[in-house]
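Bumping with the actual sequence this time:
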Amino acid sequence: MNRKAFIKKSAGAMLIAIPAYSLVGCSSSDDSSDDPDLDSGSNANCLANGTASSIGSNHGHTLTVSKEDVNAGAEKTYSIQGTSNHNHSLTLTTANFDSLKTNASISATSTNDGGHSHSVTVSCA
């Protein structure tokens, strides 16, 4: 293979590989967590400190559940868009808040937007 053919084939491969790699990063649901250090230890207290959240297969999404939300205990839908170029919603139920009030972690799944959803774990801070 000569240099010109090599460059053409390499450029063609890059034009296919880069978009494919981008799609794979956001192509399906995933239950794995990107933050293994969520603290559900003995000092964790949702009512006093609020929460920490972990979003599986995350690419810029964020979730903040305040101690005020935990204390209120009313069902609430959150936007988790963060710095991502698309949004998902996540609804926490009164039962979820009841669990957080006892300092238990909860898991929920976001809406399916852009062909995928995210597994979200909320633990006490």
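The tokens above came from a reply further down the thread. The radius of gyration is 20 Å.
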